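lol so apparently i was supposed to do this last week
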Amino acid sequence: MTPTTHLGARAPDPPPHRAAIGATPSNTRVVLAHRPSGRDIADCFRIERMPLRLPQNGQLLLKTELVSIDICSASRMQEHAPDSDILALGQVMPCSTVSRVVASRHAGFKAGDLVLAHTGWQSHQVVDATSIRRKLYPGVAPVSTALGIYGMYGFIAWSAVREVCQPRPGETMVVAAASGPIGATAGQLAQMRGARIVAVTSSEEKCRHVRETYGFSVALDRHADDFADRLRLACPDGVDVFLESVHGHCIDTVMPLLNDGARMPLCGMMEGELWPEPATDRLPAFLDAILMRRLVVRSFTHRDIARLHPQFLVDPGFISDMGALLRSERLRWHEEYVDGLELAPLALSRLVRGDNLGKLIVRVG
Ligand SMILES: NC(=O)c1ccc[n+]([C@@H]2O[C@H](COP(=O)([O-])OP(=O)(O)OC[C@H]3O[C@@H](n4cnc5c(N)ncnc54)[C@H](OP(=O)(O)O)[C@@H]3O)[C@@H](O)[C@H]2O)c1
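anyway here it is w/ NAP bound
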């Protein structure tokens, strides 16, 4: 695996479409072969090659160029995932993709167009044109950003900051998983509104990265023995906003520091979600904090967002705000690339170990 990184600048856009469809290509897909028994998930998949059918009226034949590696894919593999999320054995792992139209039977698309699709870990797919989320234009933003900062991750961060964080100048905001696309984006957006960011991540290297790349004033390793002491020192006036997504030890440490009226957008709970820990009953302490310190807690999941804004990936406010920020170069992002669809399972297992830096993307050959 040879990841390369692209920092706040143009990622290499896929090469222009050259050949029109000749012989119908076959599809290479990565499917779930069995459920993980422990934390090893990379060997739970198998690769299949299947013939492709030609698109019918209203359909497109897509070729996948970039695949988003998402942490929620790991929870979908588990038997304890919510019913609506659980991935059946033999199914392709779903996820957003940047795909190229190879053949079109719909007037709105032509061969060569780049689109944001949801075709998952496979090289090709025939889809209804109505399922396409957005056409992508490299002149507007690097197309890879549609999988991160200018896509679902950026939208979650942008909505959480506007709707719940509402940071005021001088307030302290703690950001968990601060090197990931949600934390890094939300932290920068809050910083632009004058908040002081205390970033929490999982290694010294990631701490340095978020300080140097995003300008976060403090970054702490949540695995350090003295994490609790350092966090207290870093937040002498308490915590006004806590972007939570890690759970476990992290939430235990931040909770006592939350100020009266603190806002807490909840984007995920990595530790509890992937490998449920032995019962630790946080509920009484949490309810007490909500009651006595008037916490405002609100979840930001892709499900809520899809319900609230069915067309969220084309939300005009998001597209124009974030587009302007990206073009102004006031907002930075970091992507890490892995080459080859067959390495998607390994890439996912790296993400689950926190062994990634920024948005992890597989470039399909
Ligand atoms: N609400 C939604 O629909 C939605 C969509 C996407 C992601 N999310 C959630 O948002 C959070 C951040 O995701 P992201 O994609 O922006 O970041 P990401 O960096 O792409 O991936 C997740 C990060 O979580 C941390 N992590 C990994 N394994 C962990 C574990 N076992 N225990 C605790 N932390 C672990 C690591 O960050 P560190 O090394 O910095 O700790 C890892 O880099 C996650 O909780 C994710 O589930 C939610």
